[in-house]
Amino acid sequence: MIPFLIYVAIFVVAFFAVKAFAARTAVSDYGSLKTVTFGDESAVKPSRAASFVSILSIFFLWGMFTGSALLPGFLHAPGPFQGTGTFEYTVQSGNERDTGTVTVVVHPIDTPTEAPEVDPGDGWAKNDSIAIGMWRSGLLRVDRNDELGRGEGAEIVEINGASVQPGDTVDVGWGTVTISDKGTPNIQPNKGWQMEPIWLPSPEAVVTRVGEIASEGFRGSTLWEHLGFSLFRVIVGFFFGALVGIPLGYAMGLSNWFRGWFDPIVEFMRPVPPLALIPLVIIWAGIGETGKIILLFLAALWIMAIAARSGVSGVKISKVHAAYSLGASKAQIMRYVIVPNSLPEIFTGARVAMGVCWGTVVAAELVAAEQGAGMMIMVASKFQNTDIVIMGIILIGIIGFGIDMLMRWAERILVPWKGKG
Amino acid sequence: MSGLSIQNLSMRFDLPNGGSVQALQDVSLDLKAGELLSVLGPSGCGKTTLLNIVAGFLAPTGGKMILNGHEITGPDAERGMVFQQGALFEWMSVRENVGFGPSMKGMPKNDKAEIVDHLLDVVGLRDFKEKAVYELSGGMQQRVALARCLANDPDVILMDEPLGALDALTREKMQSLVLKLWKETGKTIILITHSVEEALLLGERLVVMAPRPGRIHKEYRLPFAEMGVGEDLRIVKKHPEFAVRREEILGMIWDMEEEIMGRTEAAS
Questions:
Q1: CA distance A301 to chain B (A)
Q2: A327/B55 CB distance under 8 A
Q3: d(CA A58, CA A10)
Q4: Which end of chain A, N or C, is more open, meaning fewer C-beta atoms within 10 Å of its C-beta?
């Protein structure tokens, strides 16, 4: 809740800050002279400043709530208590009361620490000590070393001077002490607002992990091998899907018989999510490369067939007529009119298919694989290696984005006439 | 025997609801080589159907067409077609569009380049040779379409409202260009239009068609196309006979439209 409120605050503050700043440096281009901008979609351009602040604030929040070294300390959210704290407990046995002191050492989880030696003190209630890891809590039988223990009917009646009964909680400044039903104090040092690395590691931990996995590898393969395997499957599956799908789509666009024959199959298979085919493909082809490539082939096939079909259907009849009256043969019409006219549609289909294939390969690897990006994050999550999981998700996102950018770039270069007909 | 002879052409097709449409009935026309014919009529009179049949895109249900002594059975390079718009190949440059016909015939590169250069000069697009067609204005695109059609050296040029989508000024310039090309190349041209002025200006012969069933209503032989060659078309339009013909034909089409409206109202 608090991170969300901070996020909203950054959003609002940045909006007004950028607006105030932009008002001073405004350019007076055509768009800026429009008076009607609410409802004019063409007047809505992404504010680059907003994108910049948006990305920055995500990393800011991430660093803030993980105590990242990338942020100066005063920007950190309050961290968990670390160091030594003490509290006093008062036990009563019959009419006898005595007070002892408990010393609590709170240490980072990854540096095991022994409970310190403490002077037992005077009286029959002796002083105690305990070591607790950050974010953890500890039960301490304070009466165990006392001269009058639980067996003698002694029970804790006060913590730091406040009277308590089983079930009560007392704030001791650096944490809380709760008396359990059996009368044992449960010590809970303050957790602060920061996330434990096991839930959310800091950004630099993730970056360090990228370096580690890139040089040392994970589960017998380097990072590049994992990502390369995923990409290889996508490319091979997409390639065969396009190789079969495009001619199939052309045939469906050009012949009644093909259209009638394949329409029911294509229309049925198109809405089946490729993920639903994973179990069947595993049964038939196992969890090796063949199975995954078959799955991606099926994911790409229908998309490409439909794209090619609508590419053919989209040819303006006047273009075909014009080509016939200019003396073109059927083969020439195919080569010079239908194919170039359908390329924009096919490229759009290819972009969609690549996106679907990338999603499908990661999902298939989550289920079962020896290498691959999906397998990497799946295995890491089983061992609570949250940093690897986050690293994997970021890399999968970057690659998916990169594939889409690449396809758009190829589209601009190869079919500049898209949408111009 | 040169020229185009259209004999008793009929077109009748069934509708999905069981009815049928008589799009054309007994249309006969004889065109000598080099004649310029404009076809005019209210919408739904079958003028585009007629053109599509002559082009060979539709098979008539009755009658036949003879061009230069042989019967027309399908599309062929001897009959070039200019469409209203959007029939250029936007994946090709202006040069490739104009050279499309010769390329399909496998003409040697040098001969093709010569034809293309010459025609681009004629239509005034020499400087736009390597441009993509979608970078050109609507008028320029139609000039490319004309040049593309001429590059194939067809016997007959069929024009389906080629200037219909252009603005008034561009349209006037293009009308002059069509007349100039007609005179220079001596092609037989059939031009479909829904503009009475255009039909008068660009028709050595003018056919007015009537709807339901589509048939020839009246035929004119006009002097204006001849007058308009190399002449300012605004002067031609000031000719006293031009105004008379225009009013006469407008009245004729107006009556037909009224009749259609009346019939639809009665039916509904």
A1: 26
A2: no
A3: 10
A4: N
- A175-179 and A185-189 strand pairing: antiparallel
Paired with B175 in beta bridges are none
- pLDDT, tens digit (0-9, with 9 covering 90-100), for B15-30: 888 888 888 888 888 8
Assembly ipTM: 0.90
Q: Alpha helix locations (H) across B152-239?
A: 168-185, 196-201, 224-228, 233-237
* pLDDT tens track for B119-167: 999 888 889 989 999 988 888 999 999 999 999 889 899 999 888 888 8
Q: Which residue has the higher pLDDT, A253 or B224?
A: A253
- The verdict on a CB contact (< 8 Å) between A325 and B81 is yes
Answer yes or no: do B134 and A417 touch at CB < 8 A: yes
Chain B residues near residue A319 by CB distance under 8 angstroms: 86-89
The pTM score is: 0.83
**Residue B242: closest CA among B170, B188, B231, B50:** B231
Last residue of one domain, picked from the residues A142, A160, A189:
A189
Domain boundaries, chain B: 1-78+155-242, 88-153
**A212: in domain:** yes
CA distances, B252 to each of A136, A144, B199, B244 (Å): 98, 118, 14, 12
Report chain B residues whose CB lies below 8 A from the CB of A315: none
Based on the fold, state whether residues A243 and A116 are members of the same structural domain: no
Interchain contact, B90 vs A420, CB within 8 Å:
yes
Q: The domain B1-78+155-242 is classified under which CATH number: 3.40.50.2000, 3.40.630.30, 3.55.50.30, 3.40.50.300?
A: 3.40.50.300
Of A189, A223, A250, the one marking the end of a domain is A189
A97-156 pLDDT, tens digit per residue, is 888 889 999 998 888 888 888 888 888 888 888 999 888 898 888 888 888 877 778 888
Give the B window 2-41 contacts with A, CB below 8 Å. none
Q: Chains A, B: CB contacts under 8 A, how many?
A: 77
Residue B91, chain A, CB below 8 Å: the answer is yes
